[in-house]
Specification:
Distance between the termini: 6 Å
CATH class of the largest domain: Alpha Beta
Structural class: alpha+beta
Helix content: 40-55%
Number of helices: 14
Number of strands: 12
Radius of gyration: 22 Å
Shape: globular
Number of domains: 2
Strand content: 15-25%
CATH architecture of the largest domain: 2-Layer Sandwich
CATH topology of the largest domain: Ribosomal Protein S5, domain 2
Length: 432
């Protein structure tokens, strides 16, 4: 750890520039230096010039495997440069106090009371309490700390701001009180438990894993407790494409039942064939038993099961073709994924808001604008939120201008893949 004054000096003297370039890109160094200095000075004003820890956890984007993680399938995902950045100091007590951008009051959590609290669902306090509870349940040490947090991951943009926050809090507990011994996969597991049990949101394991491990990742959830994670080295910009998401402005607030119905219906269809989850079922068997599945699990359950089988195979194939540098086949697979989500998974339209259809509008306009170039698909949970697009670099400015006439200024968000490393922020050559 360094004193806050040492961190401030490192930022001002350019000693963190190499780290900032790796995390955010060269052109964003000036902006990030301002952000870091603001956060450090805010912490210094609050807690004084003491030894402090600085950690970062990125948001994530799903590249393939839409709704496959919860049925032990395969996913392709990546950490992105938008992050949750924290400056933290141990206090020696049993209270966590967090000042976070967007929340005027200090968030306080008593570490002697870690049971899920009624009425706390959906709040940052629930996530902090849930992560602390997960550490205790796993046999790790927790103590109180003060932290200032800057969250750059856009809320509602499908980049998993809550997962980034969970991993960030987990990194603080890990580095301050457990000597960094908690693995990235374990941090992700603790974060997922916090989101499910304390925050009250059903989710698979992909979000937290991508935020914790970073880079482009092929994740196989066959063994859900110990998923197989392999990194895929790829730079989309080198192929002439800008990866981005488009925030369509849809609200997830009342969509949890529609989201939760997807894994429920997949599992219901799988149980017709004698399995608790869809993993391992073949298309041949599903087609052979289609009438029975439709009768017992419904037509939508059948379609969602077909989506799972094909999408899981497709996500694995996406990773394989990226390793071989075949960007054109990869983009064809991206479009096939999007087509399957629309037709089979059916998470592009919310039945509660069937007249609005922001996702399908964004997909349709993108398809017409790009005229067969690049690729586009829904990403994440669906029903509202964001689509993902791979736009030829020379078209990105005009694409952004066009889509923002429909969805508003700032709705098109360019993404930069964040490579593994720099979880703890230190000047190069400095020991933690």
């Amino acid at each position: 750890m360094l004193r806050i004054s040492s961190y401030i000096n490192a930022v001002e003297m350019g000693k963190l520039d190499t780290v900032l370039a790796e995390l955010y890109g060269e052109k964003d160094i000036p902006l990030q230096k301002q952000r870091y200095l603001f956060l450090l000075r805010r912490m210094e004003k609050w807690a004084g010039d003491d030894l402090t820890l600085m950690v970062s956890a990125p948001g994530r984007t799903e590249l393939g495997g839409n709704h496959t993680d919860h049925n032990k399938g395969v996913v392709l995902a990546a950490g992105v440069s938008f992050d949750c950045l924290a400056v933290a100091m141990p206090t020696g007590g049993n209270v966590v106090r967090v000042r976070s951008e967007g929340f005027p009051d200090v968030i306080e959590v008593d570490l002697t009371e870690l049971e899920p609290r009624e009425g706390e669902e959906g709040t940052p306090a629930a996530l902090i309490r849930g992560v602390a509870d997960g550490f205790v349940q796993a046999g790790y040490t927790i103590e109180g700390f003060d932290a200032c947090i800057s969250g750059e991951v856009p809320v509602g943009a499908g980049l998993s701001s809550s997962a980034a926050f969970e991993v960030c809090i987990g990194r603080i507990f890990n580095e301050l009180f457990n000597d960094g011994t908690v693995s990235r996969v374990e941090l992700a597991r603790i974060g997922r438990r916090a989101e499910n049990l304390h925050f009250g949101k059903p989710c698979g394991f992909m979000d937290q894993l991508a935020c914790a491990v970073q880079g482009v990742l092929s994740i196989d959830f066959k063994d859900e407790q110990n998923p197989k994670v392999t990194e895929v080295d790829v730079d989309f910009e080198s192929f002439g494409y800008q990866l981005c998401v488009v925030d369509t402005g849809g609200d997830h607030a009342d969509l949890t039942p529609e989201y939760a119905a997807i894994p429920e219906e997949m599992c219901s269809a799988a149980r017709v064939l004698g399995q608790e989850t869809a993993r391992g079922l073949t298309m041949e068997l599903v087609l052979e038993k289609a009438a029975e599945i439709r009768r017992l699990a419904g037509g939508r359950g059948l379609l969602r099961l077909i989506h799972f089988i094909e999408e899981s195979e497709r996500a694995q194939l996406q990773a394989d073709v990226l390793r071989h540098g075949d960007i054109h086949k990869f983009l064809r697979l991206v479009n096939a994924s999007g087509d399957s989500s629309w037709k089979l998974l059916q998470n592009c339209i919310s039945l509660k808001h069937a007249n609005e259809q922001p996702i399908t509008v964004a997909l349709t306009l993108t398809e017409r604008f790009l005229e067969g170039r690049g690729a586009w698909r829904i990403q994440g949970g669906g029903f509202a939120g964001t689509i993902q697009a791979y736009v030829p670099s020379e078209m990105f400015e005009s694409y952004t201008a066009y889509m923002e006439t429909v969805f508003g200024s700032g709705s098109v968000v360019p993404l930069r893949i964040r490579k593994s490393g720099n979880e703890v922020i230190l000047p190069k050559g400095t020991e933690a």
